[in-house]
Design brief:
The chain is α/β, with parallel strands linked by helices and about 375 residues long. About 45% of the residues lie in helices and about 10% in strands.
């Protein structure tokens, strides 16, 4: 998600068109092949890997309650009643075999910019999620979070996440207060992730600058997708994308507003009077740097969103994302089924493309 997305999901009790058609097909197949083996039947089911599936550790819930009390903030729907069993139930309804768990987004793990809180919550949440993975092997993977505001602690957490917890990748926020990922402060972190050839997943939130700008318009509706564009541009302009070539980047929500803004970004920096350092931070061109990125479909499986995204990257750079518990996996699956993807492209989005990014992911 974005943890702040407040639009109410569709009723989980309503079957999607894909589910109805799948049921009809299953009945027909059963009539024709009454002796079909159970494992053969299972092979026909969608085996989606959800790359955008939130969890809520007890320590995070407690910190959120304290933060809301102090700031008069908003406690986002879904945080209070999330359970592992409810995750598994939604996965079953949406044809998801495996979900890669990520920290609840807003306000991430730092709650007002306190580095000590970020350090404590990163470790607690990573250990909690790793326990879910151990208890449900092949049903869950892990995007481990980092405190970021404390660089030394972040480097230690990278070691803990990969070497001890066997995390599948690292999950970060698009901003930390007034710092975006291209900030020089974060260079040692990304250099280490590059050395490890890690996959790095970004979830957007609302930075300090831009909350509550328009009355009755939630930050999740506009600011969250805008911050995906900010983060990607920050990584581009800083040269992080060009320098850390071995990091595999994954962004949320079909790229937010980035697909719409990519051409504009290119025209400002590489137009008639190109930036004098352009070759240093975009040696193959700005659009080529953006084309290396990957994007999930969480609350982004909409015709206009995906049409723009496919002008930026090929379908092989798109992964299935649900944004659970804020939106149902079945909603994304139904949305994707209406967008004209070929069966091969759907197989890629459902599971093959994330296998390229997370080759060691243990999945059904």
């Amino acid at each position: 998600m974005n943890g702040a997305e407040t639009a109410q999901p569709h009723s989980s009790s309503a079957p999607s068109r894909r589910t109805v058609l799948g049921s009809i097909a299953a009945v027909g197949a059963g009539a024709l092949l009454p002796t079909l083996a159970p494992d053969a039947k299972a092979a026909d089911k969608p085996r989606r890997i959800d790359t955008h599936h939130h969890f809520f550790a007890p320590e995070w819930k407690e910190a959120e309650s304290d933060w809301v009390a102090k700031t008069h903030g908003f406690m986002f729907p879904g945080n209070r009643d999330w359970t592992v069993d409810k995750s598994l139930e939604d996965m079953e309804k949406g044809g998801v075999s495996t979900s890669v768990l990520s920290l609840a987004s807003i306000p991430g793990n730092w709650f007002g910019g306190d580095p000590n809180t970020a350090v404590r919550l990163s470790r607690a949440c990573n250990d909690y999620a790793a326990g879910i993975v151990r208890d449900h092997p092949r049903r869950f993977g892990l995007w481990a979070s980092l405190p970021m505001l404390d660089v030394d602690a972040s480097l230690k957490e990278i070691e803990h996440a990969f070497d001890e917890l066997k995390a599948d990748g690292i999950g970060l926020a698009t901003a930390y207060g007034d710092k975006w990922p291209g900030d020089p402060m974060f260079k040692p972190i990304f250099d280490e992730l590059n050395r490890r050839k890690a996959a790095v997943y970004f979830h957007p939130l609302t930075p300090n600058c831009c909350g509550h700008l328009i009355p009755n318009v939630g930050d999740a509706i506009l600011e969250v997708p805008h911050d995906t564009a900010r983060a990607a541009t920050s990584l581009l302009i800083s040269g992080t994308l060009a320098h850390d070539k071995d990091i595999k980047w994954l962004f949320s929500h079909s790229g937010g507003t980035l697909p719409s803004l990519a051409g504009r970004i290119n025209s400002f920096y590489a137009g008639d009077t190109p930036d004098k350092n352009l070759h240093d931070w975009a040696p193959d061109g700005i659009m080529a740097e953006f084309a290396k990125l990957n994007f999930d479909t969480a609350n982004g499986a909409w015709a206009a969103s995906v049409a723009g995204l496919l002008k930026l990257v090929p379908a092989s750079h798109i992964t299935f994302g649900s944004d659970y518990p804020y939106f149902r996996a079945a909603m994304t699956a139904e949305g994707l089924s209406k967008l004209g993807f070929s069966p091969a492209q759907i197989r890629g989005i459902d599971h093959d493309n994330i296998r390229r990014l997370l080759p060691n992911l243990k999945a059904l």
